[in-house]
Amino acid sequence: MILTIDVGNSNTVIVGYENNQIVYKKRIITEKNNVVSYYASHLESLEFNIEAVVLSSVVPNITNMIVDVLTEQFTCGIYNVSIDNIQNFEVKLDNPNEIGADFIATAVGAFSQYKTPIIIADIGSASKISVIDREGAFSGGVIIPGIQTSLDALVHYIPHLPTVSLEVPPNVIGTNTHSCIQSGLTYGLVVQIQGLATRMEKELGMKCTKLITGGYAELIHDELPDFVHKPDLLSDGLRILYQNDYLKSTCVIDDNEY
Prior knowledge:
- The strands form two sheets. The protein has a five-stranded mixed beta sheet with strand order 3-2-1-4-5, with helices on both faces. A five-stranded mixed beta sheet has the order 8-7-6-9-10, sandwiched between helices.
- It starts with a strand and ends in a 15-residue tail after the last helix.
- Helices cover 34% and strands 24% of the residues.
- It is an alpha/beta fold.
- It is built from seven helices and ten strands.
- It has two domains: 1-113 and 233-257, Nucleotidyltransferase, domain 5; 116-229, Nucleotidyltransferase, domain 5.
- InterPro entries: ATPase_NBD, Type_III_PanK.
């Protein structure tokens, strides 16, 4: 089995692949305090023959602790995805070192399975819309506040507004405070994604394959018929990074440093 671990700001997704098919999947809260014991408890019960572990983490202050857990739990190769550990992947940013592991994984997952150019909407704690150009290079994108992040900020800075459940209301025009907030959050994000994708295609001068992924994509993807919903795109990318030799080395080297 190839085990992929996606550590996001809010959730961690653990996926196991055999013969390129998902045979195990678990979503847990990202723990930022009791890191070692928490992740060890979730990983020690895995009863599979693990060929490799591929990690993507966007929480730098716990990444090394998670690597410690992985090296303690598994004897196979363990790969921590970063720009320093990637080959055969072009990044056209002003500073390529700024690209995160999540962007790398979703990009590779996308261009390995779909025709380029590609626009990827990754809807999580932050909503990220990125572009893969015709040659398969990561060209950049936009980052906007995530839907839950936006709601948290709204009720924090305007305390008399209520916290609402994240649901797509039946109508754009709200008829009470709850439905007005829900409409603004959900339909507002839909329009942002549509509008930004249209502007990106205009800048590129061509139509793009459009994908949507991320923890909150399930909430709004039906409102975006031009986007293909790929809930496991990042995990697929981590698997492909390992299988197609994009990764230079494992975390553990001869002197046991990483």
